[in-house]
Each structure stands twice: as C-alpha cells, then as structure tokens.
Amino acid sequence: MPENLELQQLVDEETEAETKLHTRKKYCRYPYLGLLLATLSSLFFSLCSVIVKWMTDVDPMALAAYRYLGVLLPAIPIVIYRQEPVFPKGKRIMLLLRSFTGTAALMLSFYAFRHMPLADASVIVFSVPVFTGIFARMFLKEPCGLFNAFSVVLTLVGVVLITRPPSLFGPTVDSLGESGQKTEIWGAVAAFSATLFGANAYVLLRALKGIHFSVIMTNFGSFALCQCLLVTYLIGALCLPPCGIDRYLIVALAFFSFLGQILLTLALQMEQAGPVAIARSSDIVFAFVWQVLFFNEIPNKYSIGGAILVMSSVVLTGLRKWILALPQEASLRRNLSLLVK
C-alpha cells in the first residue's frame, strides 16, 4: 500500500538522533516521570470507562463524541500559544492515520465497556502492547521473533478464558453472553477489534514522537469529533444528556479524557515504549477495582485467569522492549537474553 511505503519512508528519513537526544535528556533529569505519567493516564482512562458504563441513557457513540470534544477544546489554545503548525508538512498522512485508528479504537472500546463486564473489556482492550509488535514489524520494519509469537498466543488464550466460547468450554460453564446481556458477545468482538486498531495507533504515535502533543491532540480531536458525530447521527443517537448528574458526568468524561491523553502522549515522548506499556497495564487493575466497587460485579475464576495471562503478556512485552534498548554489554540484558529472542 502506498500509505505504508510513505509511512516507512518518513520514519526512516526523520532526524531520529536529535529527537532521541532531546527526550533522553528529560528522562535523565526525571528518571521515573514517564512511568508516573503513564500510570496516571491509566487512572484517568479507567475512570472514563466507569462513566461510559454508568451512563446507560446515552449511546456510547455519543459519549465518544463528547469525549473528543474534551480533547479538542483545551488543545486549541495550547497550539495557538506555541504557534505550532497545526498540520505539519511531512507528517500529515501519519496524523490522519493516527486519528482514524485511535478514533475507531475508542468507539469500539466504549461499546465494549457498555456491553461487557468492565474488567473483562479492559483486559481485552488493553492487550494493545502485545499486538503492537506485529504492526510495528509490518509498518516500521521492527524485528518480530519467537517471543512476539508466544506473547500473542498467551494473550489469545487469556481472551478465550474471558469470553468462554461454548464450543470450547461446553454447557457446564457460563459463556460470555449467557449472564443476562445478549450483546456481550458483540462487546467482546468490539473489544478485540479495538485492540487491533489501538495497536496501530500506538505504532503511529511512536512515529510522531517529535511532534508537540498539542498538534497531535488538535488533529486527533478534530478528526475524531467529526467521525463520532457522523456515526452518531447516522445511527440516530445524537442527543444532549438530560439535566442533572448526567451533564456533570459528561464534563468529567471530557476532562478525564484530556488529562489521560495528554499524560500518555507526554509519557511516550519522554520514556521508552516498553516501560510505558507496563505502566499502562495498571488500567486492568483499576478496572477490576472499579467493577467491584461501583458495579458490584465479582469476576469469576476464568476472568481472573485470563486477566493474569494477558497482563503477564503485556508486562513481559514491555520488559522485552526495555531490555532491547539497553547496551549490548549490559549485564541485565545478558541475564534476560531469553526475552530478546
């Protein structure tokens, strides 16, 4: 595809050395700041998923539109103040692709949060780092070996435990969709699709690491708002929330979304992708806490087992990326050489 070739050419030709030097200086001054920002990002995004599941009177696609309005409005004055080029030449295709994939991922994940147990949906959606390696191999020509294949298989096994298809588990085990919500199985399909789109968004965001976050968020918010409004209008779900607490929740959704997005963008710009992926997996922990605390849904042993497998795969994937970034002579890299195969 010409888009893929152009993406690869742009990544190969950009001044990577200058960008890495700039971000590494920040990293050395504040060695754990990137991890802290990524963890805080997970906290705010998990609160967004709670709001989406709580507001049953508003369609998830409409909530996605409100969410992106919250991303766009605060980003505009920042980009104007910094006098940044809103649509920089040489990065336009990547910005559009990142906006489309990120929007599709969020719309699908909102549908999953509404129609699945919160923790189960979060586990599937936030297995993104595992599949990022596959798309990084396709678009950025990064290496993809046996470990990547193992992590994908481990993640898929975890997803199977969460969804529990009757053809594999038989009639004695309740499958997803037999617990009172007929749309749960479609929620699982949406969650897995969101993972694939999200993995592509991660790859594109990494390729845009030299761009100021306000530029990325302005493009992302503008494109996403238009896409969400169009989809919401076509399905007849475009409406204002009723007066009262729902409107405050809409404001909170937009605010938490802006904070989560800006913190994630900053974390990826000042920290390696591997440690950020590990920190972002804390979203799964938050989801289990919120599911029990707010919705009184106790996860069963299959969901917990699947979550452990997926989270282990995410953590190992992040650990591997961190080890690959170490010098060849580093003792830690030699001791954990199995992870770099």
UniProtKB/TrEMBL annotation:
GO terms for cellular component: membrane. The keyword Membrane applies. It comes from the Eukaryota. It is a multi-pass membrane protein. It is found in: Membrane. The chain crosses the membrane at residues 30-52, 64-81, 93-113, 119-139, 146-165, 185-205, 217-236, 248-268, 277-296, 302-324. The keyword Transmembrane applies. Residues 33-163, 186-317 form the EamA domain. Keywords: Membrane, Transmembrane, Transmembrane helix. Its main location: membrane. This is EamA domain-containing protein.
